[in-house]
Queue: 2 jobs
Job 1
Amino acid sequence: MTDYKISAKDVQVYYGDNHAIKDVNVDIEDKTVTAFIGPSGCGKSTFLRCLNRMNDTIDICRVEGDILLDGEDIYDPSVDPVQLRAKVGMVFQKPNPFPKSIYDNVAYGPKIHGLARNKIELDEIVEKSLRKAALWTEAKDRLHAPGTGLSGGQQQRLCIARAIATAPEVLLMDEPCSALDPIATAQVEELIDELRQSFSVVIVTHSMQQAARVSQKTAFFHLGNLVEFDETDKIFTNPEDPRTESYISGRIG
Amino acid sequence: MTDYKISAKDVQVYYGDNHAIKDVNVDIEDKTVTAFIGPSGCGKSTFLRCLNRMNDTIDICRVEGDILLDGEDIYDPSVDPVQLRAKVGMVFQKPNPFPKSIYDNVAYGPKIHGLARNKIELDEIVEKSLRKAALWTEAKDRLHAPGTGLSGGQQQRLCIARAIATAPEVLLMDEPCSALDPIATAQVEELIDELRQSFSVVIVTHSMQQAARVSQKTAFFHLGNLVEFDETDKIFTNPEDPRTESYISGRIG
Amino acid sequence: MTDTPKFTSMKVQDPRTKKRNAAEKRFRAYGIAAIAIGGLFLAALTFTILKSGLPAFTQYVMKLEVTLSQEQFDDAESQLLKTAVYRDIFIDNFSDQLEANGIDVNYDADALERLLGKVGGDIRAHYRENLSDIGQPTVFQLQLSSRVEGYFRGRVTRDTLVDSRFLEKTDLDIVDVLRDAGLMTGRFNWAFLTGTDSGVDNPGGAGIGASVIGSFFMMLVVLFLSLPIGVAASIYLEEFAPKNRFTDLVEVNISNLAAVPSIVFGILGLSVFIQFMHLPQSAPLVGGLVLTLMTLPTIIISTRASLKSVPPSIRDAALGIGASKMQSVFHHVLPLSMPGILTGTIIGLAQALGETAPLLLIGMVGFVAREYPDGVVSGFMDPNSAMPAQIYTWAARADVGFYEKAWGGIIVLLVFLLLMNAIAIFLRKKFERRW
Amino acid sequence: RENVQIAGSSTVLPYASIVAEAFGDNTDFPTPVVESGGSSAGLKRFCEGVGENTIDIANSSRPIRDSDIELCLENGVTDIIEVRIGYDGIVFASQIDGPAFTAFEPADIFNALGATVLVDGDVVANPHTQWSDFNADLPAADIVAFIPGTKHGTREVFEDKVLLAGCEETGAMEAMIAGGMSEDDAEDACIEVRGNGITVDIDGDYTETLARIDANPNGIGIFGLAFYENNTDVLKVATMGGVEPTTETIAAGDYPVSRPLFFFIKQAHIGVIPGVKEFAQFFIADEIAGPDGPLAQYGLVSDPELAATQATVEAEETLDVN
Amino acid sequence: MLTIGLVLALCAIGYMMGTRRALSSASGDQRLLHSLKGYYGQNVALSILVPSATLLVVWLIAQPLLINQSVASLFSDQDLAEGASSSLIIQDMRRVANGLDVVVDQGLVSDDAIASLDAESTNVRELLADVGVAVGSDVTQQTLDGAKRYRSLSKTGNFWRGIAVLALALAGFVFAMQRTDKNFRARNVVERGVLILLFGAATVAVLTTVGIVLSLIFNTINFFDAFPAADFFFGTRWEPSFSGRGGASDLGFLPLIWGTMYISIISLIVAVPLGLFSAIYLSEYASDRVRAVAKPMLEILAGIPTIVYGLFALLTVGPLLVSAFGNGGFFGVNWMSGGTAAITAGSVMGIMLIPFVSSLSDDIINAVPQAMRDGSYGLGATQSETIRQVILPAALPGIVGAILLAASRAIGETMIVVLGAGAAASLSLNPFEAMTTVTAKIVSQLTGDGEFNSPETMVAFALGMTLFIITLCLNVFALYIVRKYREQYD
Ligand SMILES: Nc1ncnc2c1ncn2[C@@H]1O[C@H](COP(=O)(O)OP(=O)(O)OP(=O)(O)O)[C@@H](O)[C@H]1O
Ligand SMILES: Nc1ncnc2c1ncn2[C@@H]1O[C@H](COP(=O)(O)OP(=O)(O)OP(=O)(O)O)[C@@H](O)[C@H]1O
Ligand SMILES: [Mg+2]
Ligand SMILES: [Mg+2]
Ligand SMILES: O=P([O-])([O-])[O-]
C-alpha cells in the first residue's frame, strides 16, 4: 500500500506491433493536479486511457505492467471496470456528446450511479455541473436541445460537465480546454483548482502555460517514454532532461 | 467588382429560431491571413462554414445576405457548391478523418480533382502535403494504416494535410492547432505563412497569441455579432470596441 | 491513502454496483438466450429437415442384365404406351436373371411390377440413345418403387404394411432374397440432384435439378435488378430527395410495399408482365421480375437505414475538400453502409428464394420443371419451376416418397441459400468497421 | 412455343402430371407444362384469349359454367372441347390405430357435424360431443372432423352428397321446412357445419389433412380416393351407406360421394400448337385412362363412358356455347 | 438487336474519344480540366445512350399503336357487325403477320411470294401451323390483307426506327463531342444524369404501387358491384359458400383483419425482443468469431421456406402448445383445444422474423461511432446501461425501420398462417384459438374452385386492396411517429 492515489509501474502499451507506451512509472498523488505534456502523438492520451481502462475498448490495444488505484491493481481480473470508471472519470480529447438533449447528457451519469434521489436533486446536479463547466449561461435556455447542436467549445464544456456530474475521485481530462476561449479556459482551470481540494485531477495539455498554472506535478512524455516527472515548478524552471529542456524552451502556443 | 477575395454583406444565419450570426460584414483580402477570434459559441465556426456553403448540409440552418467570392455571389443558384468548395477548402474543428488509410485520406482530394497525372505524382502530392502538415515523420511508416487510429493531434494534422492536398485558393481552418503541441503548432503556423504567399487563409483560433503571430487581419465575434474587424496589430494594441478590449485583456491561455 | 473516508475497494462491490452488475449480467444473458433460442429453433428445424430429407439422397436399385431383341424393340415402339411394354419385357426377363444367379424364389409378374418403380421411361431412353445395345446383354440398375425403398429405410415394415395394389407383404420376401443376393442395393441418388420433376406415380424419378436451374436464373434476375435499383432508390431518397410531399409519398409507399402479400405481386406480375408485356408464362425471367418487385422494399428499407447511420462528419469531410455530393456518397457513405445493404440483400434474396405464392400465378407451380433449358436465353425464357415451387408441389403429393423428396429439396434449397449468402457474408465482413 | 401448356385444378394436376410425363416419354413431343392454381384460375386463364401466350388446356374439377363461357366468348375463345377424364372419389378416413370409424351413413356425418340437427323431433343446435351420442354403433370418441375449406370443390360435393343427404335422411330438413323455413334456407341450414374446433376447415391439401389426422387419433378427415389409397398404411377408410369406396364401386355408381373431373381444350390451338390434340387423345386412351391404365392404378375412377369421350376428342366436338 | 449493338459500340467509342478529346483540349494536362477526364467520356456515352434509348422505347410503344390504327382503317363497320371486336381482328392480323415473318425466316416462302399470297388458294392457317404459330380460326382474305399491311408497315417502321435511333445516337455523339472542352462542366452534367437515374429507380416503387392498385382495382369494383360494401367492411362473419348455391356467403372483412393484426402482433412480440437482444449481443458483446457464426446462422431463419415453418408449426409447435395449454396439459388449464391457433402461427412466424430485426439492427448498432460508447464507459456506465441509454436511442431510426420491415413481413405471410393458425376466421380474443388472416384468404379464394367472377373469388382482390389501404394508413402513422420522435434528437 502506497501513499499515492494512483501508481503505475512499468506500464507498456502496444497497439498491435506499435509500442506506444514504454516502461512508464508514475505516481499520482491525491488532491493534486498532475499535468501530462509532450508532443502530439507521444502517448499522453494512451497513457491516460490506461488509468481507467478505457483502452479495454480498443481491440488491438494491449496493456502490460501494474496500475494501482488506492493500492489495488486496476487490471486485476476481479476488479470491476465499471466501478473503476465511476471513481476515475474521463473527459475525452474529441468532444463526444451523446445524441441526446443537453440535460440528458449531464443527467446520464448521476442517473446510472443513483446520485439523485429525485428529479429536483437531479436538476440541481445538472445545473451545478453546467455552471462549474461554464456552460450554464449558454445552455440554460436550451437544456432540451440536442447536445450535438452545440458549438465545438460548448460541446467540450458539456463533456466536462457530464464528467463532473458523476463526482469521480479522480478526473482524467484530455485537453479539456483545447477548443475553449481564454475566459472559458480560465473558468475550467478554476474548476480544476476547486476539484483539487477533494480529488486528484490528471490533465493532458499542450499549453505549457496552462500546465504551469494549474498543476502541481508535471509529466513530460516523449515518443512513448516518460522522460521526466516532477514538481511542475521544477520541470518548468529547471528540467533535468535535455529533451524536456528543449521542449519547454520552444515555448510557443 | 471589389478587390477582395471574399466579401460578406449583411450575413445572417439562423439555426431554426436561433439567430446565430447577426448582420455580419467582412471583407477578406487575397494573400492574407484573417483570424476569427471570440468566445466559444459566438458563431465563428458558423460564419466560417458559410464561406464555402458547408452550412448547406445542416437542414435547419438558413443563411441570408450575400457572400461574394471574387465578386461572384456564392449563394447564387447557378453556383456549383462543389466547385466553390474545391476553391475554398476547409479544415474542421473536430478532426474527421475518413475511415480509410492515411494515404487515401490525403490522396482523395487530388484524385477527385484530377490533380495528379499518375501514381508517382499522387505519391508526391501526398508526401508534400503530409510534410507541410508536419505529419510526415510520424506517418511515413504507416501510410496504409487507418487514419482513425491516429492520436488526436495527428488526426488534426491529417485533416490539414488533406485540405492542402487539393490546393485550394482559400483555406478555412477551424482551430487547426487546438490539439497540437507547440512545435507542431509552429510548423502549422509556418505552413499558414507559406500559404499566404499565394492564397488567402481564414483561421479560427482561441489563442490570441496565435492570432497575433499569424494573421494580418483579425475579426472579433461576440454573440453572433462581428464586433470589430481590423488590422491584427490594431485589434491587439488599440481596439476600438470596449468588448474587444475586455476580451483581449483577459489575455490568458 | 487509506484515510480517505470514501475508500472502497473496487474488488468489493457496493450494493448498488452489485445490482447494476446483476442487471448487466441479466442483460447479457438475455442476449445469449435470444441467440440461443434462435439457434435452438434453427437446430430443431435443421434436425427435422435433415431427418426427413436425407433419405432423398439415397436410392435403391435392382441390378438386372437384359438382352433386348430387335423384334421386341420394334414391337414396343409400335405401341401407344411404349414405356409399359419395355417394363413388361424386363419383368419377363427376370426369371433368367434369377436362374443365372442361382436364386430360387416364388414370384409372379405383378409382384415384380410392384417392386419396381416407373422404369419404362429410363429403359426406352437408354435404347433410343444406344441403338447398338439392342441385341447385346446390357446391365441396368433399375429404380425400386417408393414403398420398397421405404422398406429398406425402415419406413415400411411387415407390421405396418397393409396389402394394397402398391405392395403386398409377400413381396417383401422377394425383396429380402434379392437383397441378400446383392441384386438390390442402395446408392447415392445423383438423379435427385440432376433430375427433373416426375409424375405423381413416380417418386423415384423425381429430381430437383431443373428447378435449381430455374431458381438460379430467377435469382440472377433478382440480384441484378433489385440490388442496383434498390440501392439507387435508397440513395436518392436518403441523400438527394428534397424533403417534400413526393418524397414522403415514396417513402410511405415503399414501407407499404413491404407489407403487400406476396401473392398480390403475383397478380401484378400476371397482369403486367404476362398479359400486358406478353412475356412468356412459367418463365424464370418473369418470376425474377416479380420477385424483384417483392424484394425491392426490403433492400431499400435496409439500405436507407444504414445510409442514415453514417455520421454526418464523414459527409462533411468529403464535401469540405470539394467532393460533390454524388462523390461523397459513392466514395464514402456507400462503402460504409455496405454491411447494411448486404444484410438487406441477404434477407431479401433469402425471402425471394423461398417464396412460392407469387409463382403460383405466373405459372411456375405444378408439373413444370420437366426439361432442362438448353442455353442461357432459354434459361430465362423457357418454362421452368423454382425450388420452393417444386417443394410445394411435392409436399402435396400423396406418395410418401415425395414427402422425402420435398424435405430433400429443402436441404438443397438451404445449401443453395448458404452458397448464395456466403459471398454476401464474406463481403459484409470485409466492409464492417467501427470508427 | 413448343410445348403444350395446361393450367388449372390441383385435383386434376396429379393425373395430368402422370400423363404429361408419359406423353413426353412415349412420343416425340416435348413434355407438356402443367400448372396448378385451382380450377377457377385455370379457366380464367383459359378464357383469356387465343394465341401463343395463353394456355391450351384447362384442367377443372368442376364443369364449366355459363359465366366462364361468357368470359371466353368475350375474349374470342369460341370453340371449347370438354373432356371428362374420370371421377374423383371422396372418402372418409381416420387414423389406422384410432377408434373404429369403419362405417358411416350420411346421417351420421350430418348428426356429428351439422350446425343444427334434429334431436327428439326438435331442430336444435347440435348438442352431440361424441359419435356414440346419436348412434350407439359408432365409437365413443370425441367428434373432430377435418373437412375441405370452402375454396375446394370437394367441399361442395361433401355438402351436397353427404350433409344434405344426411339432413334429409334424418328428417331434419323436413322439420326445418315445417318450422317455417323456405326450401333454400333449409338447404343452407343443412349444410352449415359446426366449426368451433369440431369441424376444422382445411385450406391446404390432403397432406395437411393427413398431418392433422396423424396428430389427432379421434379425427376423421375427408380425402380423395387416390390419396387414401396411397396412404393405406396410416389411414383406414369408412364405408358410406355400407359401400366401400373403390374405383370399381364408384365407377359402378354404388359409392355415392364422387365428382367428375374434366379438362377443356381450346380448339383454336389444335393443329397450331404442336401436340395439343395428340396429348388429349393420349390422355384418354384406354392404355392410360382405362381401368387398367396408370391413372386408375394411381386412384382415378375411370369413366365408364370413356369411349364416348374419345370420340368427342377425335371429332373435335366443341361445346354448344350459345 | 443490331441497332442496340451499334449504339452500345458507339457509346464505348464515344467514351474513349470524349476522354481523349477533353485531355487534348487541355493539352494533355488533366489538371486544366474542369472535371476528371472520365466524366467527359461518360458524358459522351450518356449523351449517346440516353436519347437514343428513350427514342427506341417510345418508338417501340408507339409503332404498334399507329400501325393498329392504320390497319383498323382497312375493315369497315360492317365487318364488325358479325360480333367480333375490332381488337380481336387486329390481334388476329398481328398473329398472322408474325407468323408470316416466321415463315419467311424459315425459308418456307420467299418474301416476294408473301405479297401474292391469297387466302383462297393457300391455307394460311396450315402454313402457319407448320411453323407452330397459333391462329384462332381460318384466315380470311381480309385478315391476310391486314396482316400484309401490318407486315409492310412494321417493316418500314423498323427500318426507320433503326435509322432514327442511330441518327439520334450520332447526333448525341457529335453534340457531346462538341461540348467537350476543358471548361465544360462534364461532372455536373454526368451527375445530373446519374441523379435522374437514381430518381428513376425511386419511382420504380411508385410504379409498382400504381401497378398493384391497377391490377386490383377493377376486380375490386366488380366485387363491390356484386356484394354490398357495408357487409364486407363491417361483416363479422367470414363464411364463403359456393356461388352455385345462390350467394349465401358471408364475406365479412373484420375477422380477417382481426386475425391479421392479432397474429402479427404475437409474432412481433416474439421477434422484436429476441431479435433486438440478439442484435445487441452480437454487436456489443459477442467476440468476432461468435458474431461471424451467429449472425449468418440467424439469417438462415429468414431463408427457410415458409412452408417448412408451416409444417413445423403444424407438426411440432402446435402439439407442443396443446400439451402445455390444452386439456390435461402441463399447466392444467384448458385454453387450447387444437394445435392450430393464433399463438402457434404467431410464435413460429416470430422465429422466422428474428433475423429481420436482428441482422439489420446489428448493422445499425454497429455503425454507432465508438466515441459514443467511450463517452458512456468513461462515466462509469456498464455496458448494458450504455446500450440501453446511449446506443439504442442513437440507432433508433434504423431499428424502427427494421421492426417495420418485420411487421410488414408478418402481415404479408401466408403459408405459416394456413398451416399453423387454421383456416377458420374468427373474431376471438383468445390467442389459443384458430384464426386466419387476410393474406391466407386472398390465396385460398384466388386459387379455389369457385367461378372467377363470383364474389367469392373476386373478394380476393377486395381483400388485397383493403389490406393495402390499411397498411398504407399504418405506414403513414408510423412515419409520422418516427418523424416526431426523431426531431427531438439528431
Ligand atoms: N448544428 C447546430 N444546430 C443548432 N445550433 C447550432 C448548431 N451549430 C451551432 N449552433 C449554435 O450556434 C451558435 C454558434 O455556434 P458556432 O459553432 O459557430 O460557435 P463557435 O464560435 O465556433 O464556438 P467554438 O469556439 O466553441 O467552436 C452556438 O450557440 C451554437 O450552439
Ligand atoms: N487506436 C489506435 N490504434 C493504433 N494506434 C494508435 C491508436 N491510438 C493511438 N495510436 C498511436 O499511438 C501513439 C500515441 O497516441 P496518443 O493518442 O496516446 O498520443 P497523444 O500523446 O495523445 O497525442 P495528441 O496530443 O496528438 O493527442 C500515436 O503514434 C498514435 O498514432
Ligand atoms: Mg491525445
Ligand atoms: Mg467552433
Ligand atoms: O384445384 P381444385 O380446383 O381442383 O380444387
Note: Chain B has ten helices and ten strands.
Job 2
Amino acid sequence: MWKTVIRRILIMIPQLFILSLLIFILAKQMPGDPFTGLITPETDPNRIEELRIKAGFYDPWYVQYYNWITNAAQGDFGQSYTHEKPVASIIGDRAEKTFALALFSVILVYLIAIPLGVIAGRYHDTFVDKTIVLYSFISFAIPAFVLYLIFVFVFGYRLMWFPTSGTVDVSLDPGTWEYYWNKFYHLLLPGISYAILGTTGIIQYLRTEIIDAKTMDYVKTARSKGIPMKKVYSRHIFRNSLLPIAAFLGFTITGLLGGSIFIESVFAYPGMGKLFIDSILSRDYSVITALVMLYGFLALLGSLLSDIILSIVDPRIRID
Amino acid sequence: MANKNKKTVENFKSESSPPTGIQVVLREFKKDKLAMFSFLGIIALMVAVFVIASWIIDKEAVMKINLIERFTEPGVSGYILGADEAGRDMFGQLIIGAKNSLLIAIAITILANVVGITLGIIMGYYGGFIDNFFMRIIDFFITLPTLMIIIVVVTIVPKYGITELIFIIAAFQWMSTARLVRSKALSEARRDYISASKTMGTSDFAIMFKGLLPNLSSLLIVEVTLNFAGNVGIETGLSFLGFGLPPSTPSLGTLISYAMNPIILSSKWWIWLPASILILVLMLGINYVGQALRRSADAKQRLG
Amino acid sequence: MSFMQVQDLKVHYPIRGGFFNTVVDHVFAVDGVTMEFERGKTYGLVGESGSGKSTTGKAMIGLEKITTGKIIYEGQEVTNQRRNRDSAYNRDIQMIFQDSHSSMNPRKRVLDILAEPIRNFMKLSPQEERKRINELLAIVGMSEDVLLKYPHEFSGGQKQRLGIARAVACNPKMIIADEPVSALDLSVQAQVLNFMKEIQEQYGISYLFISHDLGVVRHMCDHISIMYKGRFVETGKREDIYSNPQHIYTNRLLSAIPNIEPETRLERKIERQKVEAIYQQEQHKYYDEQGKVYPLKAISESHKVAMAGTEKGGL
Amino acid sequence: MKKKYWLLLSTVFAIMLVLAACTEKETGSEKPTDKEPEKTEEGAKDEGGTTAEQPTLASEVTNEGDALAGGTLKYALVTSSPFKGVFNWELYQDKYDSEIMKFTTNVLFDTGEDFLVTDKGIAKLDVDVDNNKATVTIQHDVKWSDGTPLTADDLIYPYEIIGHPDYTGIRYDDDFQNIVGVVEYNAGKADTISGIKKIDDKSIEITFKKVSPAIYSIGDGLWGYAAPKHQLKDIPVADLITSDAVRKSPVTLGAFKFDKLVDGESVQFVANEHHWRGKPKLDKVVVQVVPPASIGEGLRTGQYDMASSYPTNQYDGVKDLTNLTVLARPELAYSYVGFKLGKYDTNQKINITDEKAKMNDVKLREAIAYAMDIEQVTEKFYQGLRSRATGLIPPVFASFYDSTLEGYNYDPEKAKAILDEAGYKDVDGDGIREDKEGKKFSINLASMEGSDTDEAIIEYYRQNWKEVGLDVQLSTGRLIEFQSFYEKVEMDDKEIDMFMAAWGTGTNPSPAGLYGKGATFNFSRFVTDELTALLNDIDSKEAMDPAYRGKAFRAWEDYMFAQATTVPMYFRLEIIPVNKRVKHLNIDWMNETKWHEVELVAENPVK
C-alpha cells in the first residue's frame, strides 16, 4: 500500500503543476490589477506604472510564470500586493482560522449526524425516523446562506448570544485560558450553522446502511444465537456502518473548505474563504493563485486520506 | 427480491416491460404518495412559472422603476408580493427570477449531462487508452476547487449574461457524471450482450447509444434529477457571493441575496423570503422525486 | 477439405506492475494454437478453466485482440478483418454465449434481439425480416407470441434456444459455442444440444464447441483438442482421444469424467487415484522447465500429442 | 404523510415568526414615548415607504451627564474585509489603516479653512515663495509615545524613507520629486537629500524645484508626518513594511498608542501619557472591524460607540434609533458622468481629443445632463444623504465653492428642445431619437457595480433618458465590477461612450491631475488650450492668494459647465452615528474634536 500512496503523491506533482499553470494564466487574465484599486487623484499614475513595471506585470506571462513557479517550488509564493506581506504568512494566518472552524464543524457534524442516522436506521419507519429524514431533507433543500443570514441576525444581532465579527476579543492576552475560550466562542455560531446543514449525507448514508444491515446474514446469525438486539447494534451493525463514515472524513473536510467561502462571507470570519473573495476583488494575483493551489492540494490530500482510511477499515477495498 | 419481481412480471403476461423500466418507476410513485405529489407539484410549478413569465407578465413593466412605490408592502396597491426599493413588483420579479433560475439549471443539466454521459459511455465502452486519457483529465478536473475557479473565470468573461453563466458552470459539471457513467458503462460493457452485438456486426455507435445507454437509464435519471437540484444551488450561490447575474436579470439567487442587507432581511421579508421558500419547496420536491427514482433503480430498496 | 485455418494463434496480456506501472510480464492466455475446420463438423475444445479455450474462441471472432498468428478463411487472411463489422467473415462466423441471459440486452424485446444480425448483415425489407424471424422461431421451436417479450421473461433453456436462433439467423458457416449448456439443467442441456445437432445437419454448419465437460464433448464432437495453459496438449479425432489418449494430462481429465454406475464406484476411485499418482510423478516429463507444454507431434494422421523431442509418452 | 407536510409548514412558519418578532421589536423602538411629535410623523410617513424631506443632520453632538474618569471607547471600523495593518504613514496604502492611525497620528500640521495649514499643530510652516523654500519648525515640546523627544531628524527621516531606492510605496511620485535632490538620492547617487537641511534640533528647511498654492495643502512634495527615527533607523527600508515597528508596535505622537492587536480584526489603544496636547481623557480605545451588514445592529445594541462611516443604503437602520445621534459631514468627493471624447496617447503621454467622437456634441451632452432626475435619486434612494452637485468643487472648500452655480437641473423639456435643435430627431416614430443622419442612435453607459441600489439608480436614469428619447444601454450589458470598470475606462474601451464615476478630491482640490492635458486620470480625454490655461491659473503663484484662486476655480467651473464633458451628479454626506454616552463630539472638518478630548458619560454604551 505504501507504494501506492507514494505513487499517488507523486501523481499530485504534475496535477498541481497543471493546476498552477491554469490558475496562473486565468488570474493574469482578470481585468485590472492590484494597483488599479489605488486610483485617487492623490496618487500619481506614473508612480503606479513604475510599480507595475517593478512587479513585473509587463513581462511576458511565461517569464512571470517561470519566476513565480520556481519561487513557489521553494515555498515562496511571492508578495501580496494589497497586504504588503509574504503570501505564505497571510495564508498561514488565515488557514489557522479556517482549519479551526473546519475542525470544529466536522466534529459537530459527526456528533449530530451519527446519533440521528443510527436512530433513524434503527427505528426505521417510525415517527422519529420520519422526523429525522425530514430534517435531513430540509437541510439539503434550504438555501444555506439564507439560513446563515437568519442565524446571524437572530442569534447574533437580536438575541446577542454570539459575537458577530472577528475571531477573538482584542483585550485578552494570548495564551490565557480566557483567550482560547473566547476564540472558541467566536467559532460557535458559524460552526453550529454549518453543522446543522451539513449532516444530510451522513445521516442518510448511515440510515440506509443500518436498514440494509438489519437484513444481513451476519446480523440474523447473531440474533439467532440469542445475542440481544442492543448488543447486535453496538457490536455489529453500528461498527460496520460507521467505518465507511470514517472514510468520508477526507471528503467532508475538503467539502467544508469549499463551503468556507460562504460561511466566512456571511459570518465575517476572516479565514481563507473570505481572503479569497477579498483577493478576487482586489486582484491580488499572488494570493489567488496560492489559495487555489492550496485548496487543490488539500482536495487531493483529502481524497487520498479517504482512500487510505477506507482501505484500512475495509480490507476488501484496495487502492491503486 | 429481484427474483420475486421477475416472477410477478412473468405472471403479468398481458403487458411486458424491461426490468427497470417506466412501469417500475410508476409503481414506485404509486406507492410513495409524497414523491408523486412532489413530482406533480414540480411540474405544475414549472409550467406555471413558464406560462406566467412568458405570456402573462410584461417584463418591461415589472422592471420599471417607480419610486413612489418604494418598499410597498404585500397586498398594498395591487402588489401581490410588494415592491422593492425601486418600486419594482416583487411578484413579477419572483416569477421572472424563477424562470431564469430554472432555465439556467435546466440548460446546465442538459449540457453537462449530454457531455458527461457521452464521454462516460465512450470511455467505459472502449476502455484502454481512451479511458485512461480521459480519466486523467477527469481526475484532474474533479479535484479542482471548482467554485474558486468559476469565480475567477466569471471575473474574466467580458460580457457576462445567462448564456455565459450556463457555459461556465456546465464546464465544471460534466466530470462527475462522466465518471459515474463510465464506471457503470465499464462493467456493463463487459457483459455478453455487448460482445454479442459486436459479433453480430452492430456498429460501435449503435452499441453504445442504443444498446448500452438504455441499460444505464435508471441510474441516469437519478443522476440528472439530483444534478438539477445541485445546479439550482450553484446559481443561487454564485449570485449570493456577487458573481452571478445582475439585478436587471432577476434570478432566485439575486432575489435571495437582497437578504444580505440586514434591514431588508428583518423588515422587508417580502423581498427575499418568497424566493427562499420557492427554492426550499423546489429542492424538497426534487429530493423526494429523486429518492423515489433511486429506489426504483435499485431493486433492493423498492417499496413496491 | 478445410475452409478455415487458424495458424499459431497467440493472445498475450501484459501484466503491469512496479512503481511506474510498466509492463513487467505477460500472461500467455493463448500461446500458439493451430486448428483447421471442415464443413459440417464439430470441433471440441476442452480444458480446465483458465486454460485459454474461451479466449481462443473470442480471439477468432474478434472479441479479443490477437497478439500474433493468422486466421485464414476460404483462402483469405482475415486476421485483421475480424473486427471489420460488415465483413463476410463476421457474418459467417457467429457465437453462442455461455450465459444466455447476459448475452441478450435486457432492454430489448425478442424481436429486436433476433433482428439485430439480420438488420446488420442482410439488407431485408421489414416483411422479409419478419418472415425470417418467424422461421428462426420455428427452427428453435418457439411460437411467434414471444416476439414482444423481454429476455427476463424466459427460462434458461428458452433463452439459449433464442441465442441459437440468433446465431443462425444469417446462415453462418461456423458457430463458436462457448460452453453453451453449462449453465443449464441436465435435462435442458440434452434438449439444447439436440437442437444444435439438428440445425447442424440441416444447414451444414461447423461448430467450435468449447467446454470443460468431456462427456458433452464426446456426445457432440468429431474432433477434439485438449488445452492446457494456452497450448494444445493433444488433438485428434474423437476416437483418438477417448480410446488412445497419449498425454498424461488428457489421461487425467478422462479419469475425472463422472460416472453414475454405482457398482464401479470404488473401482473408478482407485483408478483415479492411480492416475493422479502417476500424474504427480511423471508430469515433469511432459512439460518443459518453465512448466510449459511441448510443441505438438503427430503420432498418426489425425492424432497429435505434445511431447519433448525424443521422449515417447504414454502408458 | 400528513405529519410531514405539517412539519414542513411549521418550519416555514417558525422562520417567519422569528423574523416577524424581530421586526416587531424594531417598530417598537421606532416609537418611543419621549420622542418629539415631529419625528414620529416622519416615522409614520416612513411606513408608507417614502421619505420626503431631507435629513438635516448636525455635525456636532453634546450629551448630558458627568464625564467618567477614563473609560473605553468602542469604535467600529466599517469595512467588509480585514484591515491590512501597515501602521506607518509613509508606507500604508489602505485607507482603513489610515482610519486606525488617526488615533495615534504623527501629523505635524493642523489645517483650517479649506484644509490649509495653520500654525496650531506640532509644527509651523513658513514658505519662501520667491526662493522655492519652506521651513518647518517644531513649536512645542513634543515627545513620542515612548518618551523620546521629537527632533528635526524625525522630520527628515520620512523623506529618506520615501526617497530610498528600496522604497516600494506609492508616495515616491512626481510631487515628491519636486524636492531638490530627491531623484539623485533615489538613484543611489547621493547619501542624503540635498534639498533638505536640518537647521537646528527643531527645524528643517526644504528646497523645492517650484512652489505652488498646493504647498499650503501639504502638497508639492511637502510631507506632513513625522517618523520615529530612533525606532526605525536600524531597520532596512526594504524590511520596514514587515517589521514589528510598523505592524505591531509603532511609536507615535497621537493621543493614543498601540497596546494590543488582533491582525486584521481589532486594535486596542491606550492613552499616550506623553501626548503633547495633554493626557487623553479616555483610558482606552478599541477599534474593531465590523462588516457593513452588521454595523446597524451593532450600534443599535450598543456594541459600539461610533462607526467610522455608516453605509448610506442602510440609513434606515439607524435614523430612528434613540440610543445614538447620527452626525454628518460632507465628503471630500463628487460623483459625475463623464463622456469619452478621445484617447490617451501612451507614447506622448498626453490626452488627444477626437473631434469625430460620438459624444463630441455639446448639445447632446447638455441634453443628457438636463434629462437626469438627480434630485429624485438623492431624495429617494439616498434619503437625502447625497445632494445634486452643481459644480466640480465640493462645498467643503469654503473659499472655492461657489454656491451661485446651478448646474444642470432636471428639465426634460429643455433636454428635448436641445436635442431637437441639435438635430437628434425621432425619425421612425418608435419614441427613440435617431442621430443627425437619421441612423439608429444608442449610447453606451459604463457604471460601476456596487450595492443593489446602484443598479436601480442606473435603471432609473436610463428611464429618464428614454423619456427624452435617448436610448442608453449598459456597456457589457450590466454594471461593471470595480477593477474591470477602471481598466476599461482607462483603456478608452470602445464600448464606453459615457461613464459614471466619482472622485475623491483630497484636501487639495486642484483639478490639474484630473483634467490636465497629460493626466491619465482625465478619462474624458477632453483637452483644449483654453482649459489648459484655466488649470494652470489655478495652480499659479498668483493663486497663492485664496481670493484669486477662488476666481480661477470659478472660471474653470464655468468653462466645464459650458462644455458639459463632465456632468457633476452628487455631493455626498458621510454619516457617523455616535452613541449617547459620548459626551461631546464634533466631526465638522474645520472644528473636529481632537481624540484626547473625547469623554464618556456612562460605563457602557446606551442600548
Note: Residues 49 and 94 of chain A are 31 Å apart (CA to CA).
